[in-house]
Amino acid sequence: MKNLLSHINSPIDLRKLSKEDLPQVAQELRAFIIDIVSTKEGHLGASLGVVELTIALHYVFDTPNDLLVWDVGHQAYGHKILTERREIFHTNRQRNGVSGFPKRDESDYDTFGVGHSSTAISAALGMAIASKLQENFTKQHIAVVGDASIASGMAFEAMNHAGVTDTNILIILNDNAIGIDPSVGALKMYLTNVKKGTQKQDNIFEALNFDYSGPIDGHDIFAVVAELERLKTVKGPKFLHVITTKGKGLQKAEEDQVKYHAPGKFDKHTGELTPKNTAHLPPKFQDVFGHTIVELAKANEKIVGITPAMPTGSSLKFMMEAIPDRAFDVGIAEQHAVTLAAGMATQGLIPFCNVYSTFLQRAYDQVIHDVALQNLPVIFCLDRAGLVGQDGATHHGVFDLAYLRCIPNLIIFAPLHEVALRNMMYTAQLGLEHPIAIRYPRGRGMLQEWKEPFSTIEIGKGRCIKEGTHIAVLSVGHIGFAAIEAVKEFDASKRIALYDMQFVKPLDKELLHEIFNHFNTIVTLENGVINGGFGTAVIEFASEFNYTNNIYVRGIPDTFIEHGTVEELHDECGISKKAIKELLLTLLGTHN
Is the dihedral angle over the CA atoms 143, 148, 151, 155 positive or is it negative? Predict the structure, then answer.
């Protein structure tokens, strides 16, 4: 049988095929995705689930002239392969390679950059309104949204607006009952009832003034093509409900949809994951959080846990299993998660609100108004803080130190290692007078023996971890280990002092006075943006007290950092062990 996919370089080639050829294209596209992701890693299940839908969309619509917007982007691998990137798709998520998400400057077919969820309907509606104002009444505008994403407030805001317009917009609900973890909430129950045919109430989407059709089988490519061709002729806002299976075509991925969202390397024939021997490795920070909150919550009945749709990624799943009535997955709803935590705090509960650093950006107003302004002792645990690697610019958690530092009442703590994370969680639940943000990185820590007895941490106090004579390195967070390892590698290490400052707010001013009076040369180190971050705070301190010491700030520069391994990106930003060693050797040379 002739291979069809190898001859499809763009949707123009796809449209030259007969409809009868499309199932074969689907089979080949699925195999192509599995083949690449099995060795290169990436997001698997979501893209496998929308293979037929992806082919149908590019077959029926005149992309890129018709505008197709993918929500989140986890499911866009098939889209990328069909749109002029098949031959370079093996570089997916690698440095200088194809992005793992739709990206406007990568392709004209990527109409909107997406990494966070629930933005597609707003973006597509904006495009549709623009077409109407430009008197283009033939252009199509399509948003593909998952059932987890459509439950988000922003998606509802956009539908509320779209329903009272006469724009040419089509919303496609890719309903597979799972995002990264299983979907939650009343809307999920409603969609389940629709699929079963037991939903007796008015159709919610028709009530919002959409022309609703479905649900249809998203893996019946002929049915999907036929319905899309019909909808092309329908005016005004339209809504198509498509039922799919995440991981479709790889049995293991269908059976364990959470694990195979982004499974790492696996056998492309059997789906078996490539075994990893992790017994000798330190734990992931997320697991330290997850096990510690269970330990604390068993002793303190006021503790509750909250996560917006990331129970597995945050490891709050451990508490959801052990103490289910006090652990809450609120769905893709960061704003709600924060204000929910605030409400709980007013009633004496101790909420641990676990949000990825990059996702807390979506709830900035709530952090200010609902938590900090009212000085409610919410405990924010910010996972994936700093550079996260192959997910790239949309997911790097590099802004939190800067965007949180300017908020009154808020304590900001960054643990050097796992024990410090545990102890700060312990300290926070004992009772604080202010809210606190505890930020820690993606990946593993450094300590095998991390389950030590709890001890309290004094708020606003840093510590000297190595004395020296000429240069002081001040770090916050786990990135401090890069300096510790760098200093071990040269003979003049006695001339370098190392300080784990721990708190970005409040700064340990007493310790800073000691440092500034003793060292003429000071280096600050952070896994966050330089502008407005920890180093900036140290410079502000120096200005306030008229110090004229030489201060060298190392962190993330004023640009969006693309995807690559964490090691590559740390090197690029000058915060790797190698880069710090080179800086310190240069500075030591000026003292000779």
Answer: negative
